[in-house]
Amino acid sequence: MATASEALRGYRSRRDFCVTPEPKGEKVAQRKKNPIFVIQKHAARQLHYDLRLEIDGVLVSWAVPKGPSLNPRHRRLAVRTENHPIEYAKFEGIIPEGEYGAGTVMVWDKGTYKNMSKHNGRVVSTATALKHGEIKFFLKGKKLEGEFVLIRTDYGKKKGEEWLLMKMKDEYASARRNPVSTQQKSALTDRTMTQIKREACKKEPAVCRKAPKKRARTR
Ligand code: MN
Asked: Is residue 209 one of the residues assigned to a domain?
């Protein structure tokens, strides 16, 4: 297992903490509580939903362009991104123009999860499931509940980085409910994306000012 510091190297190397209000993530949490999850709605160049699961003290992350679905027939592309620090689960605000992931971030859903992963019929840890490319987890969030699965695919240009997020069939599955479009407010502060942006700009006008173009930063 990589040390936490290694696990967050990618996160830190992409960010200038003098400019972005995102957490530095200096500590890696040694937690004994139920693992947490968060789904952040992120209006970057392209709107997407970042699903993050606590595994070994960091938030292992996937960008889901369409967001989660409760319909077990839907396969939602989930592109693995860099691990984030645990404190990131409470981050809501604006990543300034010119910075990595510039745009508004909302905590769309949050809660805890129960690991349901198995390999060859045996229960395995989420860390092991991550390595094997199949993680099953039962979410207890404010908006989402029930069992989901993430499966790594061999398709796509970035081999190994593309996963599929699917709802398992259970009592929480639904072909009709669509929380991504019907429940659009923050699970943390009950604000809309517009309110988050407006309040962040009022509090810290610098983050809303357009920065001069420097190094090209994507995503
Ligand atoms: Mn993102």
From this structure: no
Residue 80 pairs in a beta bridge with 62
Q: What is the pLDDT of residues 5-47, one digit of tens each?
A: 788 999 999 999 988 999 988 766 677 778 999 999 999 999 9
Nearest to 51 by CA among 109, 118, 136: 109
pTM of the model: 0.89
Q: Please check whether residue 186 is in contact with residue 200, taking contact to mean a CB–CB distance below 8 angstroms.
A: no
Rounded CA-CA distance 27/33 in Å is 17
Query: What's the 77 CA to ligand 1 centre distance in angstroms?
Result: 14
* Cα–Cα distance, 10 to 212 (Å, whole number): 24
Q: How far is the CA of 104 from the centre of ligand 1 (A)?
A: 10
Residue count of the chain = 219
- pLDDT tens, residue by residue, 174-208: 999 999 999 999 999 999 999 999 999 898 887 77
Distance, CA 92 to ligand 1 centroid (Å)? 12
- Count of structural domains within the chain: 1
